[in-house]
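Hi R.,

As promised on Friday, here is the backbone we talked about, encoded as structure tokens. Could you run it through your design pipeline when you get a chance and send me back a sequence?
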């Protein structure tokens, strides 16, 4: 499909060029500029967003980016989630959401974490209810009953996330809570998170400010001092989906546990 769109783009460009050249009043530079503009518009519609100078825009996230695995996926892809690095990341996140550090995660842990973000006071009443509903849905679909005795141990969590990682429908829905975390710590509601606001994020997770600073500097890949909502969600989701140790998203939820 992509190749078809590219061919159509260049056919349209060629036709445009012929039409403009046949008009005496149109200079060569004007034709080139017009063709470049049309090509840029066409390419933008295919999912590659560019500035006027033709360079890809930093931090732009297309729909295909947000739904991708981060790692390659195709008809012959191998099963994911068996690398020690990925399992280490999942153990890290299990430790983060194990609020009372008793080695298991319960729905009570989920609720306590949610309250920490809600109590920052930056979510609207509607967003608070939606946030609670999303967390409830995540828990029920992944771990079952909303029961204080439904306790998820580390290995059970790893196996569950392995299943999510290899199920396309579950994978798309598993991290819908991320935008609410962003909005909860976007203190000034300007649509981006600074390092100071990222510290609030880590506070709610029970992590310290120095770790927040280190993680923020690592994941702020364009070094502009801010994370947009798209960047935040993409990085937070990528943590769970990629097995690439080079990805900065590995420290999104704080320092990794020791191997």
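Update: got your reply. Pasting your designed sequence below so it's all in one thread:
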């Amino acid at each position: 499909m992509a190749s078809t769109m590219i061919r159509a783009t260049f056919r349209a460009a060629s036709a445009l060029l012929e039409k403009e050249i046949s008009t005496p009043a149109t200079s060569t530079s004007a034709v080139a500029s017009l063709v470049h503009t049309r090509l840029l518009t066409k390419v933008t519609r295919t999912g590659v967003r560019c500035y006027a100078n033709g360079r890809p825009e930093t931090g732009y996230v297309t729909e295909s980016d947000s739904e991708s695995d981060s790692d390659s996926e195709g008809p012959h892809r191998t099963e994911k989630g068996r690398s020690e690095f990925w399992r280490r990341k999942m153990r890290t996140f299990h430790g983060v959401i194990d609020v009372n550090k008793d080695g298991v995660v319960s729905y009570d842990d989920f609720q306590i974490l949610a309250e920490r973000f809600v109590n920052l006071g930056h979510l609207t009443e509607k967003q608070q209810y939606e946030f609670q509903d999303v967390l409830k849905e995540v828990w029920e679909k992944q771990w079952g009953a909303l029961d204080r005795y439904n306790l998820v141990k580390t290995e059970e969590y790893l196996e569950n996330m392995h299943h999510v990682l290899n199920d396309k429908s579950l994978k798309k829905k598993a991290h819908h809570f991320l935008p609410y975390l962003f909005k909860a710590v976007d203190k000034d509601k300007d649509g981006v998170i600074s390092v100071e606001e990222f510290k609030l994020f880590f506070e709610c997770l029970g992590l310290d400010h120095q770790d927040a600073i280190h993680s923020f500097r690592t994941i702020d890949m364009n070094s502009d001092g801010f994370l947009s909502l798209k960047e935040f969600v993409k990085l937070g989701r990528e943590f769970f989906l990629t097995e690439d140790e080079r990805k900065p998203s590995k420290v999104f939820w704080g320092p990794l546990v020791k191997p």
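One thing I noticed while checking it: Residues 1-10, 12-68 have pLDDT under 50 and may be disordered.

Thanks again,
M.
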